[in-house]
Amino acid sequence: MLLALVPLLLLGLRPLPAHAASDPVWGLMASSCSASDIAANKAVGVSIVEVEAYWDRYLPTAAGVENTDYVTDLRNRVTACLDAGLRVVVGTGTQYPPSWVRGLAGAELVDQRGKNPDTGAIDTVFSASVRNAEADYLTRLVDDLPASRLDGFRVGTSAAGEVGFPGPNDSGDGFLQSWWAYGADAQQGTGIAAGTPTTPMPGWIPGQSTWNGTTVTAAMARNWFTWYERSLMYAIKGQVDALRAAGYSGLVHIPSPGKGVLPADLTTATNALLNGAGDRDGSLGRGLNYVDQFPVLGGNVGGVVVDLTGVDDATAVTARAASPAQDMCTAGDADTSTDPATPVQSWSNLRFARAQAARAGLPAVGENPGPPAAQTGGTSDSDSEAAQVRHSPAYARGCSLAGFFLAFEGVLDDPSSGLTRQDYANAVTGAAG
């Protein structure tokens, strides 16, 4: 059954046209909600913060056994921010599974070579045991926190807390084309999560030209990939369903990295039977196909907001340097982004992904990758954190984001970063500094 749509006007987030007059709400990632940070944030006009929960701290030893000291501290910090008038999104922290969850049936992700990811990612997509444990944890978050006062919960499937499977070389041995759907749950249905279909081609490995004595066609490869990438949407829906069943009726943020596979690249990839051709940035193995996935979210999962995590990432630097520049969203992007004649390969990640959210009628917020050396999405080609602070507000406004979260509060608290909250405020207001 599809979820009833939660009104998106709730708590101030709503779908916006390409150049809406409304300004984004300005926030920070990973807030401590300490008294000093609350005061500092309010002093410069920060109005919304993300507070991260940690599954492994919440239920560290066994199912159902809460760490009451941690739960109390988390609740107190969230409540302190709310009572001070700050809006709060809670990151559920499912990317930090306790050790006992790692031991559950089907918890290990497996690629087509039998390898496991070296990132610590577990199978929150196909494993019923993991998904059930995750649902119990999400229920506890709703029960233990002032959920009705929150601006949102933030959910994902990856080790980074975003939507997606592990990425290129996450098997740790230099192999760049892992597909993470080769456990017994996905292949045979043994212990598969409720409502999640098994592979349409059991045993087939991308790149193979035959399956069960039949010649594999491009259409069959595309159908397999659609199953693979939509499995992520089943997992997201499972998390949203768990929150709703616990009584939470607010918004749910879906952190969405990169731009996803481009339509022309997917055609190249499936014509080559997913042998690695057309994989521009690892989106294929990660299962990221926003052209398809965002409409699936918009049509089947109510009350979701896509959180575009590529604001002023390395692709923005490249797109900004193009002639003409290709980094800024424009009013026609939603209509032209899937036209084969549109050179979307030169667009920034944010511009293309924002267009897909607009096509799907989904509201969007965003965040920058953070310091390049922090391994949170930045690369050696990214802007420095100071440059991200300068550029991101213009991207947030130009792409009509309902909110922007600067990564991270701790950077602004660290004197060695050379950045302050006033620098952020100056960037938002356009003041020099």
Tally of DSSP helical segments: 16
User: In percent terms, what proportion of residues is strand?
Assistant: 5-15%
Shape: globular
User: What's the CATH architecture name?
Assistant: Alpha-Beta Barrel
Query: Structural class given helices, strands, pairing?
Result: alpha/beta
According to CATH, what is the class?
A: Alpha Beta
Rounded to the nearest angstrom, the radius of gyration is: 21 Å
Topology (elements, then pairings):
Layout: E1 25-28, H1 35-43, E2 48-52, H2 55-58, H3 68-83, E3 87-91, H4 99-102, H5 128-144, E4 152-154, H6 184-188, E5 210-211, E6 214-215, H7 218-245, E7 252-256, H8 263-271, H9 283-286, H10 290-300, E8 304-308, H11 314-321, H12 333-336, H13 349-359, E9 364-367, H14 385-398, E10 403-406, H15 409-413, H16 421-429
Parallel strand pairs: 1-2, 1-10, 2-3, 3-4, 4-7, 7-8, 8-9, 9-10
Antiparallel strand pairs: 5-6
Helix pairs in contact: 5-7, 7-8, 7-10, 10-13, 14-16
